[in-house]
Specification:
There is one protein chain. Strands 1-7-8-6-5-2-3-4 form an eight-stranded mixed sheet, with helices on both faces. The longest helix has 14 residues, at about 125-135. It is built from eleven helices and eight strands. The mean pLDDT is about 90. It has about 240 residues and is α/β, with parallel strands linked by helices. It has helices spanning about 10-15, 20-25, 35-40, 55-60, 75-85, 125-135, 160-165, 165-170, 175-185, 200-210, 215-225; strands at about 30, 45-50, 65-70, 95, 110-115, 140-150, 190-195, 225-239.
Length: about 240
């Protein structure tokens, strides 16, 4: 199968057919760096990383947590995650097949549930199911998190190129849905900024451009752009 120039924002195709592109995109260095293990206060705790992908986020918790369970619905992602684990030093990480609404853990068995940029959070029902399932597996006083792009920042600072300026003004993006639903469910939030620096124009086109579309590829080439600023929003709630 010939690889297309771009998948034009089809994340389902990315996860299923091009996990190596996802892995390369996830590995791009971001500054300033964030120590999520310290930020989430997971020292000595059991953590579930929902929709863990190829385990970049899972491994961020491992130096601090008692145990980390990476949960992922896509078999190809799980395969890469397990391969990455073999080359790591971590003995406290395991992976299980599951999803945001079917976390493969018993009731009241974990301290922290976190989901980084979960592709399933595109409507109120999916988010509500995630929160209910997280609350089921959490112990008393456990915490649930969701970390994703802030409203209006899909694809980072180049959102107007990807979506068009009106898309940011009209409240129809998935990230606005997430914002409203999490707030309605009693979550607080915190924003932070980072910049992804790609090694070359070729690298940003083959990863970022491949994911986000032809308009972005043309823009990157025209402006010789190799870095993208992002605004991320962290939703959090303690039971």
């Amino acid at each position: 199968m010939l690889k297309p120039e771009t998948i034009e924002n089809r994340w389902d195709i990315l996860y299923r057919d091009y996990p190596e592109v996802y892995e390369a995109f996830a590995r791009v260095r971001a500054t300033p760096t964030k120590d999520f293990g310290k930020m989430f206060g997971v020292k000595g705790k059991t953590v579930v990383d929902v929709a863990c992908g190829t385990a970049r986020s899972t491994f961020a918790f491992a130096p601090y947590a008692l145990k980390v369970i990476g949960v992922e619905p896509e078999e190809v992602m799980l395969r890469i995650a397990r391969e990455n684990l073999k080359s790591s030093r971590f003995q406290n990480v395991i992976f299980k097949k599951g999803s945001s609404d079917k976390i493969p853990m018993p009731d009241n068995s974990v301290d922290v549930v976190v989901a980084f940029t979960s592709a399933s959070f595109f409507n109120a029902e999916n988010i509500q199911r995630y929160v209910r399932e997280a609350e089921r597996v959490l112990v008393h006083s456990g915490s649930v998190y969701s970390i994703d792009v802030a409203p209006g920042w899909y694809g980072g600072e180049l959102a107007p190129v990807i979506l068009g300026p009106s898309r940011r003004q009209k409240r129809i993006d998935y990230d606005f849905v997430r914002d409203e639903v999490f707030k309605a469910l009693g979550f607080k939030y915190k924003d932070f900024y980072s910049t992804r620096q790609f090694d070359s124009l070729e690298q940003i086109i083959s990863t970022y451009g491949f994911i986000f579309g032809k308009k972005i590829i043309a823009y990157l080439k025209e402006n010789n752009k190799t870095k993208v600023k992002w605004k991320t929003r962290m939703y959090h709630k303690t039971l």
